[in-house]
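Message: Just now I want nothing more than another pair of eyes on a protein record. I am handing you a single protein, as its sequence and its fold in token form. As I understand it, each token names a local backbone shape. Take your time, and here it is.
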Amino acid sequence: MSKRLTRIASSRLSDQELTGLLKHEIHGVLNNGKTYFGVLISFTTSQLVIQDPRRHEHTLAFTELYEIVYDANSASLIKT
């Protein structure tokens, strides 16, 4: 059985990986342990924006971001 959760350290994030995760549910884990859950709606070279289930947007700076965690199986099943 393969692992479903995929973790990507902030230092290893690439534009290609983030583009593949647009419109998918992710967890953004900050260096202080605080976690944001939602859909990745956009990103720049310095930050990403997650929209939570209440439709609130959270801007996470890459300097504060520890890692991104997402469910690999559900990411491949979501149709955009």
Remarks:
- The chain has a mean pLDDT of 90.
- Residues 15-21 form the longest helix (7 residues).
- Residues 5-77 form a domain with the SH3 type barrels. fold (CATH 2.30.30.100).
